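Figure 3 (text version): structure tokens given as input.
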């Protein structure tokens, strides 16, 4: 996978997609909260039209949301539909319906945002293909795969190679790239193509970073370097870098993971350690990370 240059004429309006997705979710929510006997599908079409640019045909809107007719859909499907429509305005303007299979039939640039980071050693038993890096969970904001959540492994060598494009400084300056978890909540774009899909999951190859994405990322980097930002627990970066902190994005805007970790006794190493509150595992984060980054399985100790 390579780092490319943004083609001329390609523009990512992320804020527009976010605004339209919120509007569409509200329209869908109002439709599904009504009594099923009083639902009128074309009332929904009219509400959806209010969230979109003028000039779109009724037919392209109907074809893009026809799977919602009848109301037997999940919240995830509704959310994915809202993002898929909001993130594909150019296709809609061309008269192309953005159905759930659009990422399997169309190629295009898509903006992704990093939602979680899992440091990982790929192929640990192979001397030739072993690759230390990170599995990223990415939410696609725009493009043919908009609304979908995907996973992508990026090696450390590759991450270091694209770090300046993402917004980090050179290693000898103030804001260098240090850890793969620093990409949490950052944005970049990839070239999505049906040929790259695996198990009906879209994927991308080339990566580009627009100036707006780079500025977004730089603002995150500055927070984590305590530049114009006070750490909520008053810890200097040299003592506790954000990627080693237990506080999540639910409590700190500079966090590098979503949920604030909790302390419990690990069923493997036996120590008081950090756990993700949404995990049901009795294996602490340190033990999980050890296994993920070495390929070796932890042995369970007797915990009194």
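Below: residues designed for each position.
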């Amino acid at each position: 996978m390579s780092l490319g240059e943004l083609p001329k004429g390609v523009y990512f309006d992320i804020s527009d997609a976010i605004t339209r997705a919120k509007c569409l979710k509200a329209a869908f929510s109002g439709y599904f909260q009504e009594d099923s006997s009083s639902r009128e599908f074309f009332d929904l079409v009219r509400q959806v039209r209010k969230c979109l640019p003028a000039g779109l045909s009724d037919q392209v809107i109907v074809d893009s949301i026809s799977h919602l007719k009848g109301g037997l859909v999940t919240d995830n499907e509704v959310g994915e539909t809202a993002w898929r429509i909001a993130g594909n305005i150019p296709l809609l303007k061309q008269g192309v319906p953005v159905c759930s299979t659009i990422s399997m039939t169309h190629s295009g640039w898509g903006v992704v945002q990093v939602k979680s980071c899992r440091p990982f050693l790929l192929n640990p038993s192979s001397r030739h293909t072993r690759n230390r890096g990170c599995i990223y969970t990415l939410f696609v904001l725009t493009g043919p795969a908009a609304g979908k959540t995907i996973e992508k492994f990026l090696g450390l060598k590759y991450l270091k190679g694209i770090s300046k494009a993402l917004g980090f400084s050179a290693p000898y300056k103030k804001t260098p790239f240090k850890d793969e978890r620093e990409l949490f909540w950052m944005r970049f774009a990839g070239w999505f193509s049906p040929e790259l899909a695996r198990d009906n999951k879209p994927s991308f190859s080339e990566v580009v970073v627009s100036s707006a994405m780079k500025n977004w990322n730089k603002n995150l980097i500055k927070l984590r370097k305590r530049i114009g930002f006070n750490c909520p627990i008053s810890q200097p970066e040299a003592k506790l870098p954000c990627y080693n902190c237990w506080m999540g994005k639910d409590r700190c805007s500079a966090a590098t993971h979503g949920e604030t970790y909790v302390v419990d006794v690990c069923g493997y190493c036996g120590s008081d350690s950090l756990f993700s509150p949404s995990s049901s595992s009795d294996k602490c984060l340190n033990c999980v990370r050890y296994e993920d980054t070495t390929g070796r399985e932890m042995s369970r100790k007797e915990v009194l």
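The radius of gyration is 22 Å.
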